[in-house]
Write a structure and sequence with these properties.
- There is one protein chain.
- Helices cover 40% and strands 18% of the residues.
- By secondary structure, the chain is an alpha/beta fold.
- Helix 9 crosses helix 10.
Length: 293
């Protein structure tokens, strides 16, 4: 099982040197990958009544593709992962181009996790339709994979029209791995369409479920994958451990539990744990590395 870190974007600040030091430290410790979240805009909650989102105007987010362009030049081995990029609020062809460029500059180290998101304020500002974001995602993924694997495509779908055009340069990975972020309940009614999309479309998924509920969810995912004509074992899985949820013994126990459930990757999230400096985050991931080996 590969171990990675969640980039502490809301707490690391805007100093490029701090970003560099954290990421190079993670690579130097032998972590296999770095996960970055995505938000373009934060809402001013004094002007948005009954706000339900987890992030607001004051929450800092470095833009993933620009950040990865920087990280590609100062790292050599760590995989660069979005978990997740809000695909529905972005133009698909532009995502294909940006992702391909990051993959080229990093030497084939990009893994693109995508999701539909929850922030309607961002969708409005970016000029995309919030109401059909789930339905559009499947076609977006198809377009991305075609653009990454062909010099020229001629695609005419429900949401996209691309007439005899392509991106150049193509990525090193053809196609770039696409993972989905998916919330899932143990016994949903009706069945969760997000999990069905994972089963049909994803190379891997980031489960938003605890290990106690995971067996039931994994059983459903396997059934959906088989119904879609896919081998369930081909869909990789990466849960996350929050350092704030327990001590190192807890981290170790969670890691072992997820390994037993078939996780192929795991990552440690050090945000919201009371750390007050980039060095605190570095110290925390070092402790996690010592625990997981």
């Amino acid at each position: 099982m590969k171990a990675g870190v969640v980039f502490p974007q809301t707490e690391i600040g805007a100093d490029p040197a701090a970003v560099r030091d954290y990421v190079q430290a993670a690579e130097g410790m032998g972590f296999s990958h770095l996960i970055v979240y995505d938000h373009v805009l934060g809402a001013d909650t004094t002007k948005h009544a009954n706000w339900q989102g987890g992030y607001v105007l004051e929450s800092m987010f470095h833009e993933p593709f620009v950040l990865f362009g920087y990280l590609a030049g100062i790292t050599t081995s760590i995989e660069l992962v979005t978990a997740v990029l809000i695909l529905g609020q972005r133009q698909t062809a532009l995502v294909a181009k940006q992702a391909a460029q990051c993959d080229v500059l990093s030497g084939g180290r990009l893994r693109l996790g995508v999701g539909v998101g929850w922030n309607h304020v961002e969708y409005e500002a970016l000029g995309e339709d919030f109401s059909n974001r789930g339905a559009r995602q499947a076609e977006q993924i198809e377009v991305l994979r075609q653009l990454w694997t062909n010099d020229v495509i001629d695609f005419h779908g429900k949401y996209h029209d691309i007439t005899n055009a392509g991106i150049n340069p193509l990525p090193i990975q053809r196609p770039i791995p696409i993972w989905l972020g998916a919330g899932a309940r143990a016994n949903p009614s009706p069945p969760d369409p997000v999990l069905r999309r994972v089963a049909r479309l994803a190379d891997g998924w980031f489960p938003q479920v605890g290990p106690d509920d995971a067996p039931a969810v994994l059983g459903r995912l396997a059934g959906f994958a088989e119904a879609a004509g896919r081998d369930p074992s081909a869909i990789e899985m990466e849960p996350r451990i929050n350092s704030a949820d327990g001590d190192p013994e807890f981290w170790q126990a969670q890691t072992e539990t997820w390994a037993g459930l078939g996780a192929t990757h795991i990552s440690i999230n050090t945000m919201r744990a009371g750390y007050t400096s980039p060095q605190d985050h570095i110290n925390a991931i070092q402790q996690f590395r010592e625990v997981v080996g």
